[in-house]
């Protein structure tokens, strides 16, 4: 099939969270590739129960996927990095930006977050939530978010066409999802080779991010000489230091 992603679009002016709506639609049998889009989210969510600011002007959407689970070639844990890579390449292709993906789910411009991904898996249903700060004035975001965030409007000093952005995003996501199913997804992650601090629920580690394995885990060579495989957590880039 040519275009899977976005073959059905459910549009809302305001929802609590597009991921919640998509999960419900998926349970009710919505077809793979269905996308839920909202102008605003009242309770946008990040990982680990964090909140995601979602004022009007942003792009808040969730995609329903049903890849064949158990396929070793296509581990679903790669999906946040794949979605992030697609967002970065879409922004760079359309606007000549230098957006890049920080492991495991952030799209940054410089070191400021312009987009975040929240993937939720329930049985064989996967919802990939994508938030992009598009036509948002930075000062409409909460003060604590403003410190680490940016928006396309701030970077480009003008508003973008959300329709053009969404269309390009769907088309690139479609291509990459096909590659993913064949085991050929392309992941560009700027965390590799950087000195990083990793924060997990249990611990804090500093080291060099050596690579991302085939499941999306980060392979960290720590300062005290051990090699750790990190499957989930937060990452802070400490250096630009490619080596
Ligand atoms: C994420 O979590 O980055 C995942 C964000 C996913 C949002 C999309 S929007 C469509 C779909 N529906 C949802 O309900 N969610 C998804 P995490 O890595 O945990 O980052 C969360 C942190 O980012 C927060 O604690 C804030 O510090 C920061 N943050 C909140 N809102 C932001 C924004 N609009 N832009 C940049 N940073 C933000």
Question: In brief, what are we looking at here?
Answer:
The protein has 243 residues and is of the alpha+beta class. The protein has five helices and twelve strands.
Please give a structural write-up.
The chain is α+β, with helices and mostly antiparallel strands. It has two domains: 9-182, BirA Bifunctional Protein, domain 2 (2-Layer Sandwich); 195-237, SH3 type barrels (Roll), CATH 2.30.30.100. It is built from five helices and twelve strands. It has helices at 18-27, 79-95, 143-146, 152-156, 162-181, and strands at 9-15, 35-41, 59-65, 99-102, 106-109, 112-122, 125-132, 195-199, 204-212, 218-222, 227-230, 234-237. Strands 1-2-3-7-6-5-4 form a seven-stranded mixed β-sheet, with helices on both faces. The protein has a five-stranded antiparallel β-sheet with strand order 11-10-9-8-12, with no helix packed on it. Strand 9 and strand 10 form a beta hairpin. Helix 2 (79-95) packs across helix 5. The longest helix is centred in the last third of the chain and has 20 residues, at 162-181. Residues 17-19, 41, 44-48, 50, 52-54, 60-62, 105-106, 113, 116-118, 129-131, 133, 141, 145, 149 line the site of biotinyl-5-AMP. The site of biotinyl-5-AMP has 29 residues, from helix 1, strand 3, strand 6 and strand 7.
Low-confidence stretches: none
Based on Cα principal axes, name the global outline.
globular
Largest sheet: 7 strands, mixed
Widest beta sheet: strand line-up: 1-2-3-7-6-5-4
Bound molecules: biotinyl-5-AMP
CATH structural architecture of the largest domain? 2-Layer Sandwich
What is the CATH T-level topology of the largest domain? BirA Bifunctional Protein, domain 2
Mean pLDDT: 94
Q: Structural class, from helix and strand content?
A: alpha+beta
Order of helices and strands: EHEEHEEEEHHHEEEEE
Q: For this structure, what is the CATH homologous superfamily of the largest domain?
A: Bira Bifunctional Protein, Domain 2
Alpha carbon gap, first and last residue: 42 Å
Report Rg. Answer: 17 Å
Relative strand content: 25-35%
The CATH class name of the largest domain reads: Alpha Beta
Structurally, the number of domains stands at 2
Residues in helix, %? 10-25%
Strand count:
12
The DSSP helix count reads 5
């Amino acid at each position: 099939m040519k275009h899977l992603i976005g073959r059905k679009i459910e549009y809302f002016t305001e929802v609590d969270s597009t991921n919640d709506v998509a999960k419900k639609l998926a349970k009710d049998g919505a077809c793979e590739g269905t996308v839920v889009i909202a102008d605003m989210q009242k309770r946008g969510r990040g990982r680990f129960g964090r909140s995601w600011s979602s004022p009007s002007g942003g792009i808040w959407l969730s995609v329903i996927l049903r890849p064949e689970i158990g396929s070793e070639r296509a581990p679903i844990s790669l999906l946040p990095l794949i979605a992030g890579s697609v967002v970065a390449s879409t922004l760079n292709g359309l606007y000549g930006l230098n957006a890049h993906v920080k492991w495991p789910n952030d799209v940054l411009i410089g070191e400021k977050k312009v987009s975040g991904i929240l993937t939720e898996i329930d049985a064989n249903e996967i919802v990939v939530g994508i938030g992009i700060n598009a036509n948002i004035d930075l000062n409409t975001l909460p003060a604590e978010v403003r410190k680490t965030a940016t928006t396309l409007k701030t970077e480009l000093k003008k508003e973008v066409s959300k329709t053009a952005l969404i269309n390009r995003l769907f088309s690139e996501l479609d291509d990459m999802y096909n590659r993913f199913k064949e085991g050929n997804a392309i992941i560009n992650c700027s965390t590799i080779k950087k000195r990083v601090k990793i924060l997990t629920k249990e611990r804090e580690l500093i080291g060099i991010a050596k690579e991302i394995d085939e499941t999306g885990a980060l392979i960290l060579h720590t300062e005290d000489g051990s090699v750790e495989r990190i499957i989930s957590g937060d990452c802070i880039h400490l250096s630009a230091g490619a080596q």
